[in-house]
Task: structure prediction
Amino acid sequence: MRRFLMLGLAAAILLSGCGNKGETSSDVGASGDCPAPSPALAQLPTLPEKFPVPDKVTFTETKMAGPSTIVEGYWDGDLTDAFNAWKAAFPAAGYTVTREEQESADAEVNFDGSGSNGQVKLETECSARTTVKITIRPG
Result:
């Protein structure tokens, strides 16, 4: 009996690692690997003066967390293109990039300027889209 219990537990553990990470066929876009994106905000969120927004960014949510503003959205394209665009956009807008890091599935660009500082966090959502989360704190 104990042997069957152990085999059952091992099978359950192995099977829990399989699957489609909660996606159903209705979540997947025409390309086969991208879920439908969240709807865009009706208007741009309030951002610091001269805050750069690359062309391929769509904002979907904004909220406050204490004194910080958190803006979420997505980039139409891959992680590397998004990372390079944000890295270039900050200096061009008069901001300083204080830290940058890119790994295979995520990247961060930290910034300082216009009386604020914070981070743009990028994560690969699928082959054609990168999630964007911007945290802006008063400087």
User: Anything to note?
Assistant: Helices lie at 2-16, 79-92. Confidence is low (pLDDT under 50) at residues 1-32. Residues 81 and 119 are 17 Å apart (CA to CA). DSSP finds two helices and six strands in the chain.
